[in-house]
């Protein structure tokens, strides 16, 4: 395994690497011949890179893609876009990195909106005319326009506009998972959220006042629905589009007291905001010299690439919010809407730090998140953001979207793991109790569990009188926290994504290479959500033996199964899964009573747990029996399935 940087032409001054944390991986220098057949051309369009590929190559990645999975023979334009209208490459979080089934991946260190042709036939002298094979005269449009196997001149072509050069990082490895892990270590390693961040978050109605929000928070405690985070939406501010960052005197007349009341109830408070600064804000004049030339909703766009802007914004948030107990933020609207909604700034905008609008769109969310982390200082967080880009694995932020198609959310869950991103398939409202339960199931088995009820005055489950069913699902999420925290610890130390596509671990299986609606949740569990309209689904299980998480049944791998009722979750035979007694809330002194669940023959199996020791020190423990370990865990028993 290795990472080699190949410097081509004259790379631009502003790239993701310029702003990224230090690499946790070793990087060597190489020449263009490391990538056989690489052709480089610079012209008035910018930079073009072209290199041959085999038709059989599986191609994955390119960020948080919600409408596609396997990219062979596709064209992608990697543009930040809040509402991707088609399978075109538009995304909340496009990333110029792809990984293949041929033992390598490539990261292009650029902020430009690159266009990638993932395999096109090139005409070479002496080529024979293609043979007519019957498909060419088909009248079936799906068959007619489907990609067909290429010949010997199949190429990947990458266009980087404006640029005259780029640093290309060639990452080699035996498996897709090895390559993805190295990319994440190039990013500084994966994030390690606090334990409470792996619980559940509820975001309340946008116009609730302090008392209404506290009443709902108390009700959730009385109903024993275990939420650790409580989110306030736009109404907490007196001006939200653009933002004043000032508490509404009408709705929140005593904000410090309100935050103390939330803390007494055991909640970490998360505040909604975006970075477009309203003229009435105390931040407006200090940030004026460090803002882009265009406004959005009459608000400034701070240039967070400039240390002065970052410090002004971070210092304000630390004094006004963090010191008063705010633990997390939801950073909205930092993607782009030029292709669907019309707000945001143009690609041709100038920013005082030196970037143009195209480059700043690609860094906006990441630099915004970086600024908020500076405000939080030593305090741990697990926050939300609407845009991230390349080399952002170390940031403790999950992505979310205004789209609400269940299948798109599942596809984003599966794709996120290729590019160092975390995704929240949030729950909003529902048409019925069954639909709601399916959405909650997917959220529970995800990187970040979120109920976003910003436009609902009552909880979604109250409408359908299904609180008990939903409560048990959220309690299951709390039981999974020790298991999930170990997965995040591996993400932090090795780069292994906690949620990832089947092809990452089973790329030798053809079915796994195409499976976009199933994913691995940690190392031992496979999740195959059932979407809203269906009551059963076909599940492919990779080779080996699997055991139903809910029913304990044994299922042979390498074949398909039709599953009904509960969300299909399976455990690799021979795995020990630690499940804790659900607690509400998770506090600094919380100690988890953990039952080890043995799925199959586990006589030689080891359960690995990461323990933060309640003081920030993180270490790992291994257990096969009862015992007391660290300050966080007590292994209370072993249960056979």
Protein described:
The two termini are 38 Å apart. Strand 20 (519-521) and strand 21 (525-527) form a beta hairpin. The radius of gyration is 25 Å and the shape is globular. The strands form 7 sheets. Strands 17-16-15-14-13-12-18 form a 7-stranded parallel beta sheet. 23% of the residues lie in helices and 26% in strands. By secondary structure, it is an alpha+beta fold. The protein contains 15 helices and 32 strands.
Offer a few descriptive terms.
641 residues; alpha+beta; seven-stranded parallel beta sheet; six-stranded mixed beta sheet; 32 strands
Mean pLDDT, as a whole number?
Answer: 92
Uncertain stretches: none
The number of distinct helices, counting runs of at least 4 residues, comes to 15
| Biggest sheet layout | 7 strands, parallel
Distance between the termini: 38 Å
**How do the strands of the widest beta sheet line up side by side?**
17-16-15-14-13-12-18
Task: Round the Cα radius of gyration to an integer and report it.
Answer: 25 Å
* Class based on secondary structure composition and strand pairing: alpha+beta
Helical content stands at 10-25%
Task: Identify the overall geometry.
Answer: globular
The total count of strands amounts to 32
């Amino acid at each position: 395994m290795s990472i080699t940087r190949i410097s081509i032409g004259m790379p631009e001054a502003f790239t993701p690497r310029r702003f990224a944390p230090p690499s946790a991986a070793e990087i060597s220098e190489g020449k263009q011949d490391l990538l056989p057949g690489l052709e480089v051309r610079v012209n008035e369009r910018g930079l073009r890179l072209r290199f041959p590929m085999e038709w059989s190559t599986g191609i994955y990645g390119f960020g948080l893609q919600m409408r596609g999975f396997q990219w062979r023979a596709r064209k992608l334009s990697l543009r930040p876009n809040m509402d991707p209208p088609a399978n075109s490459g538009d995304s909340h979080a496009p990333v110029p990195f792809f990984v293949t089934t041929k033992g390598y991946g490539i990261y292009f260190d650029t902020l430009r909106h690159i266009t990638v042709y993932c395999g096109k036939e090139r005409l070479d002298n002496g080529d024979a005319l293609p043979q007519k094979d019957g498909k060419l005269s088909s009248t079936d449009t799906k068959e007619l326009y489907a990609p067909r196997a290429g010949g010997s001149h199949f190429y990947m072509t990458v266009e980087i506009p404006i640029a005259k050069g780029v640093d290309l990082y060639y990452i080699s490895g035996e498996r897709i998972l090895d390559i993805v892990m190295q990319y994440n270590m190039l990013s500084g390693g994966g994030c390690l959220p606090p334990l409470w961040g792996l619980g559940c978050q509820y975001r309340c109605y946008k116009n609730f006042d302090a008392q209404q929000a506290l009443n709902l928070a108390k009700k959730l405690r009385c109903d024993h629905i275990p939420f650790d985070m409580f989110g306030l939406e736009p109404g907490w501010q007196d001006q939200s589009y653009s933002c004043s960052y000032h508490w509404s005197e009408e709705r929140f007349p005593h904000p410090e007291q309100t935050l103390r009341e939330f803390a007494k109830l055991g909640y970490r408070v998360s505040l909604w905001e975006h970075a477009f600064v309203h003229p009435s804000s105390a931040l407006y004049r200090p940030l004026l010299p460090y803002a882009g030339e265009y406004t959005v909703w009459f608000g400034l766009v701070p240039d967070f690439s400039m240390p002065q802007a970052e410090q002004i914004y971070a210092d304000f948030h630390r004094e006004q919010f963090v010191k008063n107990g705010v633990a997390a933020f939801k950073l909205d609207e930092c993607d782009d809407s030029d292709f669907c909604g019309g707000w945001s700034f143009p690609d041709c905008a100038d920013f005082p730090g030196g970037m143009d609008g195209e480059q700043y769109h690609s860094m906006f969310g990441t630099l915004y998140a970086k600024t908020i982390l500076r405000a939080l200082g030593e305090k741990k967080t697990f926050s939300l953001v609407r845009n991230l880009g390349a080399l952002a694995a170390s940031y403790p932020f999950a992505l979310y979207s205004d789209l609400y198609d269940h299948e798109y959310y599942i596809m984003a869950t599966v794709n996120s793991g290729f590019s160092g991103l975390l995704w929240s398939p949030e729950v909003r409202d529902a048409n019925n109790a069954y639909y709601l339960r399916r959405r909650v199931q997917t959220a529970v088995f995800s990187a970040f569990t979120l109920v976003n009820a910003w436009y609902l005055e009552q909880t979604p489950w109250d409408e359908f009188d299904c609180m008990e069913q939903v409560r048990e699902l959220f309690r299951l999420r709390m039981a999974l926290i020790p298991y999930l925290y170990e997965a995040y610890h591996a993400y932090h130390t090795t780069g292994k994504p906690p949620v990832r596509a089947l092809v990452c671990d089973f790329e030798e299986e053809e079915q796994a290479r195409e499976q976009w609606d199933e994913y691995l949740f940690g190392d031992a569990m496979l999740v195959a959500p059932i979407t809203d309209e269906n009551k059963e689904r076909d599940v492919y299980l990779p080779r080996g033996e699997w055991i139903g998480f809910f029913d304990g049944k044994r299922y042979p791998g390498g074949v398909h199964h039709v599953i009904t009722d509960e969300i299909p979750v399976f455990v690799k035979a021979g795995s020990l899964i630690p499940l804790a007694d659900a607690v509400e809330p998770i506090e600094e002194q919380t100690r988890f009573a953990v039952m080890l669940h043995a799925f199959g023959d586990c006589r030689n199996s080891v359960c690995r747990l990461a323990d933060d020791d309640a003081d920030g020190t993180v270490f790992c423990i291994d257990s096969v029996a009862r015992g007391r370990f660290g300050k966080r865990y007590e292994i209370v028993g072993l249960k056979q399935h």
